Amino acid sequence: MARKPESRPNVSKDELLKYYRDMLLIRRFEEKAGQLYGMGLIGGFCHLYIGQEAVVVGLEAASKEGDKRITSYRDHGHMLACGMDAKGVMAELTGRIGGYSKGKGGSMHMFSKERHFYGGHGIVGAQVPLGAGLAFADKYLGNDNVTFTYFGDGAANQGQVYETYNMAELWDLPVVFVIENNQYAMGTSMKRATKSETLYGRGVAYGIPGEQVDGMDVLAVKAAGEKAVAHCRAGKGPYILEMMTYRYRGHSMSDPAKYRTREEVEKIKTEKDCIEHVRDLLTQGGLASDEELKAIDKEIKALVNEAAEFSKESPEPPLDELWTDIYA
Amino acid sequence: MATQVLMPALSPTMEEGTLAKWLVKEGDAVKSGQIIAEIETDKATMEFEAVDEGTVGKILVAEGTAGVKVNTPIAVLVEEGETVSDAPAPAAVSAAAEKGEAPAAVAAAPVAAPPAPVQAAKGWPHSDVPEGVPTRTMTVREALREAMAEEMRADASVFLMGEEVGEYQGAYKISQGLLDEFGPKRVVDTPITEIGFAGIATGASWGGLRPIVEFMTFNFAMQAIDHIINSAAKTLYMSGGQMGSPMVFRGPNGAAARVGAQHSQDFAAWYAAIPGLRVCMPYTAADAKGLLKSAIRDPNPVVFLENEILYGRSFEVPAEGDFTIPFGKASILREGADVTLVSFGIGVSHALAAAEDLAKEGIQAEVINLRTLRPIDYDTVLASVQKTNRCVTVEEGFPVGSIGDHLASTIMQRAFDYLDAPVITCTGKDVPMPYAANLEKLALITPAEIVAAVKSVCYR
User: Fold this and answer.
1) Which ipTM score applies to this complex?
2) Separation of alpha carbons A101 and A119, rounded Å
3) What's the CA dihedral at B230, B233, B238, B242 to 10 degrees?
């Protein structure tokens, strides 16, 4: 591991096990989704989150009940991390009635009001003002909820992001802007898209504080998340977290990823993997045995298989669903 | 248990591919996530990763094989101590088979034969105001302000947001006085940032509020149209009914006077094309008040298209009570037996002027004010056409893909046998709006053009 042992924080076994389990669920779920895509059971676009799991799991650990989240089309991890049911997510991917949107949304468009997950948006950057709007509503209603608004380094170049920064700071909206900087906007590396050295630094122009975070380290993510959330809940307005992360797979299933070398990907996988990191903390610290972790692996595998089975068995939506949910 | 590795689909359109290269051989141990083969799709050469762990027991498809169908078993993975013979016989299930038969086409709405004659619309809500109620005269501007103020008093979750709506009292003074009554929390001045505040308002509608977004003009809403359509109109459907967007996008639409091409466009047909939106386009002050109150209460996103020239015109509006107009109910502003004129918004004033002129020549025109363009009150239009057997549509927008085009096609499909002449669509000209006074006049629809169209369908 590239991380220094002294960076190991004082954290309980249960906490680490929860992160391990939650991140592993996302990874195994996504691998299974890739497999079902390969079998033709999932159609269209499918953007996998593999590699970035620490970002959502760490930030969920910094949130409280009532907080909201909204993201782009690379959204499966966010849904699993906030407690949405793997079966319902997978069945949406296969376009079945048991999916969160009854099969009418697909991979990019899922919602759960119950879990305060507001999508799942396919237009790059559009979720940023939408997330600030959720925060606007919370401030208007006078509660202390915070909205986590996720977007990528690609979306960070959309104009509406900066329109939103301006108003979010102007009105002190309780929104944490989470830039998941996985370093590639589809096939365009960050240095081919901007001369900015950091993305969080762009907040300075609007008076929004922020910082860069090791997004491959779930504990660093959680700590930064707590700081950002405290800022928002104190009524001080928005905060920007630039999560330095990496996606192992292509942009979507049909991306051969020729814009980066296999060595680059392998290096991150071996040196920075977020799940291996927590696994090492658990085993090297003597907190958990291999058997204990294997049991979790097995449990997650069973859960994912169950979700996959459900997503195959759940029927396609009845044909009259074509005409429902257009108007409330 | 041995597991089969199947030929994967690696793009939305892939049905078969070439197994270009194996990166493992029989007997190799494979880890989950390891790249085991390269596969050429219709788009690119892709690396193929193993999902399951195991040992490559047998390679079933040799590298270099082209035309390998998706889901064909290409290798078998075995667990420690297992042999290939333990593997289940190949029984790849095709995606199509698992999904079942393709669904039969949903029957389209009947379009062929003319249905039974539609009942003619009589009386409220097909009149401008309910019969016999006391009314008072007010401008469209006052009617819009009253509608917002009444709804904001009734529901604390309603708020107004836009450029210059507060301290400036509204670029067109529609929101005059609202800041004083409701304060800056509910009358929110924004920077000049249409896509930003349209997105924020849409998010706020998901968070439990009922935003009214004022665009200084709908020309500027083109900056924000992504949120109106992709975010507000589609979310209820995309969420399987979980989340709607109860909100109003309102502001002046269409030509004002001498403001040039970028500030003079009628967007009625654009928004009317979008499922999930409701679209209102009032003509009278009663329309403005009754429809805006309904729009604010509606659980769906409403595009509310006003008109700068109409803002200062006065009409009768019910003086008392909670006056609302239901969506999808056209009003008949003038009855006539010879020809049906269908219009909306400021087009109605041209249609009424034309009807006045036509009456002098003995042609009695029925003038229908659609009020809402989504839903459209087809029944009222069809009933009138069944009576008059002739129809001319009137609107300010561009001719291609106009509301008139849609009505003409609907009338042809549902009342063909009643028509004594083709439907004529009177629209603005197919040009960007010119600035020069004489050219602008030519570009806009005029009562004289409507009169000429009516004479044509009446063969006069």
Assistant:
1) 0.95
2) 11
3) 140
